[in-house]
Design a protein that fits this description.
Blueprint lengths: L2 H16 L4 H8 L3 H8 L6 H45 L4 H15 L6 E6 L2 H14 L7 E8 L4 H12 L10 E3 L15 E7 L1 H16 L1
Parallel strand pairs: 2-3
Antiparallel strand pairs: 1-4, 2-4
Helix pairs in contact: 1-2, 2-3, 5-6, 5-8
Length: 223
């Protein structure tokens, strides 16, 4: 490129700079090196408004880059999580009736009442409560009228709504729910409400069944 051509580009670069364009934008627009643009426009004075706009654009661009990077990271993590979940499902494969029987014993060993004469299982997880209620029906031969439910819930949550939720989930009618245990909420304690339906305890008054379950637990974990 001759002198006249470079001079023409320099004049255009300075004009663009005076309009408030960034050196990067001028580089792209004129298709010249960034170092050349920097030299040509280094003495061009920009207004405060132009400088603020360039600064904000730079900040926005950097922020956009951070957001894109974060989103890509989240997408990558989500993809990995889905992959691992699918692998886990395949590894577990089909669950037999015998498997469910043993799983129920293990869950009772972890969360069930192991002292006294009453059978009882407490949890906040709907999946756990549903599984164990059905487990009691199928493997322990518990009849519907034997079920009793007790709700443990903070006083800032909706007790009636929680009872209806658990009743629908378990199939246990509301008249078989006993008096709830209401825990006073501490407003000064920063607590994220995770369990809006409280803790449910499914109870069965049957000493012999309790002893049988303890025998199952011994057969698996203490034999």
């Amino acid at each position: 490129m001759g002198y006249a051509g470079k001079l023409d580009l320099k004049i255009k670069a300075r004009a663009l700079r005076k309009r408030g364009l960034s050196i990067k934008d001028i580089e792209k627009k004129l298709k010249v090196s960034r170092s050349s643009v920097s030299i040509w426009v280094r003495d061009v004075k920009l207004t405060r408004k132009q400088l603020e706009k360039l600064y904000l654009n730079k900040r926005t661009g950097a922020l956009r880059g951070c957001i894109v990077a974060a989103m890509n990271k989240i997408k990558k993590k989500d993809k990995l999580v889905k992959k691992l979940i699918q692998e886990g499902k395949k590894e577990v494969a089909r669950i037999s009736s015998r498997d469910k029987f043993v799983i129920g014993i293990a869950m009772y060993f972890a969360e069930g009442e192991k002292t006294g004469d009453n059978v009882g299982f407490s949890n906040t997880d709907p999946l756990a409560i549903k599984f164990m209620t059905d487990w009691f029906r199928k493997y322990c031969k518990v009849t519907e009228e034997k079920f009793r439910c007790y709700l443990y819930i903070h006083d800032n949550l909706d007790e009636v709504k929680a009872k209806k939720y658990w009743s629908k989930l378990t199939g246990i009618p509301l008249h078989q729910f006993r008096k709830s245990y209401i825990v006073k909420n501490n407003p000064n304690r920063l607590r994220k409400v995770r369990h809006v339906y409280g803790v449910l305890r499914v109870s069965i008054s049957n000493a012999n069944l309790h002893r049988k379950i303890m025998g199952w637990i011994s057969g698996i974990f203490k034999n």
